[in-house]
């Protein structure tokens, strides 16, 4: 057991949600007769849920600062509808329509941020009003009719990496290249971490453990490279998945490596202490809400691109899936705790649940019931562990104690 801990880099309990996700995939694959782990299904699963995972990235930061955003689905639907209408009525090129949608997201976020940061109205109330305004706005400007979007936008929501042919392995070369880049990047990160880590017994993993870890993760990357790259001709890794991957990397850097990210955790952990240490709480609130609505616009663009038209019902209840993804990933209801990767695991749990239940022929009504119970179970487990003085799901997955406290400490050190 101690050798396994060395390979995984710590307490085995930290991989609870990862193992749960893997088990869920295996169970659905067996029940569905092998239809879960197929190229076409995973391509559809990723491209069909990318917009929710994008929303979850922004929702994590909102929840970390101790707020909630109920408007994200409505903002996404409104931005997508405006994009479609301006492209149709003003004959704008697709890229200009996309910029208009992103501008709508920025303005909506500034609206919410103003009421939260300047007037002190709680995010729940502010965004509840925003949800009503933008939901009504979608129906109003569309006159309850779907609007087609330029065909170029389909690439954002349902496109694939360029088909560069098939190598002797039979895989799409662009997907194969992406897998190779991913493996090299992970290997470099692990070796740099090994080289620069402390030489103490506790601070430095043995080289054999690092090697085994690289091999295991490499095998996992290799499997998913094969899974996405071995589909029918013309398919490869989905473009929405690539956009999501880029955003995950960007927001990991923002939350873990930037001053603004440290301030977000500081405000969520203890607003008063953060203010005393020099953190501009109002600015942090404002920028977090702007960021959330900007990502909502991105989600709307991805969804409209996939469906090739903007509809009056787009965005309905999207905020529920985004919020559920964050809490299943272990974020604390009171704020200050949560990580990007754990949120993505939570989002994938929701996506696999949706996909697996659909493969089993379970209706949308029962799917919602099951997802509700999963959310309650995850949060109850989180609360129970905290009441016993144990790590939450996030803590077990990516080190909650460090995450919760690093913001205030770093903010103090910056002054």
Write the layout of secondary structure elements.
Layout: H1 2-8, H2 16-31, H3 39-64, H4 72-89, H5 94-117, H6 123-142, E1 147-148, H7 154-158, H8 173-196, H9 207-229, H10 239-257, H11 259-269, H12 271-276, H13 281-307, E2 309-310, H14 318-328, H15 340-359, H16 364-387, H17 393-398, H18 400-414
Helix pairs in contact: 1-9, 2-15, 3-9, 3-10, 3-13, 3-14, 3-15, 4-5, 4-6, 4-13, 5-6, 5-13, 8-9, 10-11, 11-13, 11-18, 14-15, 14-16
Structural class, from helix and strand content?
mainly alpha
Order of helices and strands: HHHHHHEHHHHHHHEHHHHH
Gyration radius, rounded: 22 Å
On the 0 to 100 scale, the average pLDDT is 87
Read across the widest sheet, the strand sequence of neighbours is 1-2
Strand coverage percent:
under 5%
Q: Count every helix, treating DSSP H or I runs of 4 or more residues as helices.
A: 18
Beta strands, count: 2
Cα(first) to Cα(last) distance is 44 Å
Unreliable runs, pLDDT <50, ≥5 residues? 391-405
Largest sheet: 2 strands, antiparallel
Task: Summarize the amount of helix as a percent range.
Answer: over 70%
Shape type: globular
């Amino acid at each position: 057991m101690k050798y396994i801990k060395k390979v995984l880099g710590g307490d085995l309990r930290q991989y609870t949600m990862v193992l749960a996700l893997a088990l869920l995939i295996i169970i659905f694959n067996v029940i569905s007769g092998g239809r879960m782990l197929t190229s076409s299904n995973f391509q559809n699963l990723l491209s069909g849920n990318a917009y929710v995972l994008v929303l979850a990235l922004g929702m994590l930061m909102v929840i970390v600062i101790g707020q909630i955003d109920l408007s994200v689905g409505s903002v996404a639907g409104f931005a997508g509808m405006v994009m479609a209408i301006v492209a149709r009525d003003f004959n704008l090129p697709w890229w200009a329509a996309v910029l208009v949608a992103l501008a709508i997201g920025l303005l909506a976020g500034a609206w919410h941020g103003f009421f939260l940061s300047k007037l002190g109205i709680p995010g729940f109330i502010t965004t509840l009003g925003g949800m009503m305004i933008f939901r009504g706005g979608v129906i109003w400007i569309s006159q309850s009719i779907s609007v087609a979007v330029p065909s170029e936008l389909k690439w954002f929501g349902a496109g694939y990496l360029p088909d560069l042919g098939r190598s002797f392995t039979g895989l799409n070369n662009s997907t194969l290249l992406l897998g190779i880049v991913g493996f090299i990047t992970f290997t470099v990160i692990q070796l740099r971490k090994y080289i620069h880590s402390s030489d103490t017994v506790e601070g430095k993993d043995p080289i054999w453990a690092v090697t085994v870890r690289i091999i295991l993760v490499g095998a996992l990357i290799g499997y998913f490279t094969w899974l996405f790259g071995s589909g029918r001709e013309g398919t490869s890794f989905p473009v929405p998945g690539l956009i999501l991957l880029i955003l995950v990397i960007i927001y990991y850097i923002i939350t873990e490596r930037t001053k603004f990210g440290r301030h977000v955790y500081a405000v969520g952990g203890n607003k008063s202490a953060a203010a005393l240490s020099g953190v501009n709480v109002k600015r942090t609130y404002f920028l977090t809400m702007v960021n959330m609505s900007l990502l909502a616009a991105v989600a709307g663009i991805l969804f409209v691109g996939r469906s090739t038209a903007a509809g009056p019902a787009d965005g309905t209840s999207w905020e529920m899936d985004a919020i559920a993804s964050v809490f299943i990933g272990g974020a604390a209801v009171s704020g200050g705790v949560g990580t990007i990767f754990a949120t993505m695991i939570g989002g994938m749990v929701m996506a696999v649940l949706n996909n697996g239940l659909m493969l089993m022929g379970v209706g949308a009504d029962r799917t919602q019931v099951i997802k509700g119970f999963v959310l309650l179970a995850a949060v109850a487990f989180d609360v129970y562990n905290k009441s016993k003085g144990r790590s939450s799901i996030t803590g077990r997955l990516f080190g909650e104690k460090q995450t919760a406290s690093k913001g205030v400490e770093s903010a103090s050190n910056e002054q």
